[in-house]
Amino acid sequence: MEQKKAAGLSRRALFIGGGAALVGGTAAVYGEELARMWWLVPGIDKQRTEGEVDHKGARWVAASAANLRTADRPADYTIDRIVIHVTQGSFASAVRVFKNPLHAAAAHYIVRAKDGHITQMARELDVAYHAGNRSFNERSVGIEHEGFVDRPEDFTDVMYRSSARLAAGICRRYGIPADREHIIGHVEVPGTDHTDPGPHWNWARYLKLVRAELEDRPPARA
């Protein structure tokens, strides 16, 4: 994914340069701290590595740049929601359409039904066009699940468990409570005309798995 470029001197350079001027001769001592501080400034472009993923074990396949907006979340937009989707098609077809610039939509992740494999198609830093609501796009991470809303057999145990690990990691990174106010279905997004994940998605089971992941894997110390 191509990183945004600012005209002239970058705000990062101005910030670090100003900080160095303030500390004067002690700039070398505080260099490492200053280098970290700029990440906290809203609107600063964060460094990106091609192919890097936010969820360990996910495979990176880039969505079309037309299907998302490059951002610096959570510095510029607070992330406080996870939106659960169902593809209404195959895993392969979801990957294909998210790579298509004419589709005008993409989720951050897709979870495969047969084995729980996860493909990441947008960085969590960025605003993916998945919810059909600008505010919810900006504040949420979207997880697609392979299947159809009217086929409960598509929601496999391995899919639930894999998605729960993914959701728990997102909750941990951004301090999102693992409840139905903060982990919602696409159908619950204001203004949407979608019905997914549908009546066969087992919310009680899913949230139990997410909470178990959070309890079993406490956040690592920085």
TrEMBL record:
Instruction: Kindly list the GO molecular function terms attached to this UniProt entry.
Output: N-acetylmuramoyl-L-alanine amidase activity
Query: Which species is this record about?
Result: Streptomyces albidochromogenes
CDD domains, alphabetized: PGRP (cd06583)
- Catalytic activity, per the record? Hydrolyzes the link between N-acetylmuramoyl residues and L-amino acid residues in certain cell-wall glycopeptides
Q: Which residue range or ranges hold the N-acetylmuramoyl-L-alanine amidase domain?
A: 68-198
Sorted alphabetically, the keyword list is:
Cell wall biogenesis/degradation, Hydrolase
Which Pfam families does the record associate with it? Answer: Amidase_2
Q: Which InterPro entries match?
A: Amidase/PGRP_sf, Amidase_domain, NAMLAA_amidase_2
The Enzyme Commission number assigned here is 3.5.1.28
> What is the protein's given name?
N-acetylmuramoyl-L-alanine amidase
What EC class does the entry list? hydrolase
